[in-house]
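Researcher: Go.
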Amino acid sequence: MAIEFIECGSLSISYDATGKAIVGLTVIRDDTDTITDTYNNRSWGGVQFDLITMTASQKPIIGSGGWTSWALQLEGVGR
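Model: Structure:
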């Protein structure tokens, strides 16, 4: 099982005129496995979000011994 955490300063939540939520965040992991749907149903700031992953971009963290950084862009609704 991978160790992972969200880089707190990377969390960005915005809403468009229709109420669609756009969430951006960076996840740091200790392996190179693909991120699953772990972030599609989350709660931030007391709001439960139903999201789908639109993009997931992986970058190795040089000199870290196998850690990777994932930039995620998710879209959906907050309720």
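Model: The chain has a mean pLDDT of 91.
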